[in-house]
Specification:
single chain, mainly beta, 8-stranded mixed beta sheet, 4-stranded antiparallel beta sheet, 24 strands, 3% helix
Length: 330
């Protein structure tokens, strides 16, 4: 990646160790499983400073800044390139921006556009722009507080609310000990929301009102019978994983832990089509991020949001068992 986080093309040429190529000197030696960081010269960059009116009415982490240059290339600034200053967070500095002219778009994480300022100049030193001073965004935002409870009315601490934007899910917030979470949307915006909590059914909301209470019932379970496992094979780190065939990110993954009689049980996935995979956890944590796939069942599992009546089956063969032994021995 370049200095502004943009992916850059890189040519990799096979070489003998230490050899010089006609295209230039080798900068790194790659070995199997190695990870190499190439430090590339950063382009000339500058800073834009924005001052906000009534910043306390905004949640800064909900804002997204995108700069569209004269060629039409849009680059969203990563959070580590946003610096909030002032006693109340009334200034926002956009750091490491390429010099030039373009349009600045300010959106909420939920997708709603709050402002678009054209013909903005990024210069070094910074070129003052009166349109970026005392910017009024809070009047374009609608605040909604939700209270998430279980089916008995008990508040759920740590329940998650996400905006579903096409194939992407955007975290909007988690509930406090009272089950409350503050959400911010554009005045005319209402994205599809997904509300979830551990051990609870996920719910999708197409409309919300301030003060609304959302109840999540106990999660239905999905069961998978894994057959063909030898009696001497350790089971402690074996999981079954459902992976969405539409969206390939961990937010759309459901884990089922292998239990008694080699039946894996986990929360019922949301409506959709999933691949069924057998995995070995490498960090010892159920549903963790470090795992190795050892098998995938032919065909796909389809869920319609209703309870499953009979367990699915994942039949292992000799090759899958051999891979399980190899991974469990690591």
């Amino acid at each position: 990646r370049g200095g502004d986080g943009e992916l850059l093309p890189l040519t990799v040429t096979p070489s003998l160790p230490g050899a010089r190529e006609r295209h230039g000197e080798a900068v790194a030696v790659l070995q199997r499983g190695s990870r190499v960081e190439l430090r590339l010269p950063a382009p000339d960059t500058g800073t834009l400073t924005i001052s906000l009116r009534e910043p306390q009415q905004l949640s800064p982490h909900q804002l997204r800044f995108t700069f569209v240059d004269a060629a039409g290339t849009a680059r969203e600034l990563a959070p580590n390139r946003l610096h909030y200053g002032g006693k109340r967070g009334e200034t926002v500095q956009l750091l490491g921006m390429r010099l030039g002219r373009g349009s600045l778009r300010i959106r909420l994480r939920s997708g709603g556009e709050l402002a678009r300022i054209d013909d903005v100049v990024v210069a070094d030193p910074e070129a003052p722009d009166a349109r970026l001073r005392d910017l009024d965004l809070h009047t374009r935002v609608r605040n909604v507080t939700l209270r998430i409870v279980d089916d008995a009315g008990v508040p759920l601490h740590g329940a998650r609310v996400r905006a579903v934007l096409g194939s992407e899910r955007i975290d909007l917030g988690t509930t406090d000990a009272a089950g409350r979470v503050l959400l911010q949307f554009g005045r005319d915006e209402m994205p599809l929301l997904e509300v979830s909590a551990d051990g609870r059914q996920r719910r999708e909301l197409t409309t919300v009102q301030d003060g609304m209470q959302v109840a999540l019932g106990a999660a239905e379970v999905v069961r998978v019978a894994v057959t063909g496992l030898p009696a001497d094979l350790p089971r402690a780190r074996i999981d079954v994983m459902f992976r969405s065939v539409v969206r390939d990110n961990l937010a759309d993954t459901v884990w089922a832990k292998l239990g008694a009689d080699d039946v894996a049980q986990g929360p019922l996935p949301v409506r959709g089509t999933y691949l069924l995979r057998l995995v070995v956890r490498r960090d010892g944590k159920h549903g963790g991020s470090t795992w190795t796939q050892v098998g995938q069942r032919d065909g796909e599992a389809v869920f319609d949001g209703t309870a499953q009546r009979a367990p699915l089956e994942f039949a292992t063969d000799a090759a899958t068992v051999a891979r399980l032994r190899e991974e469990l021995a690591r």
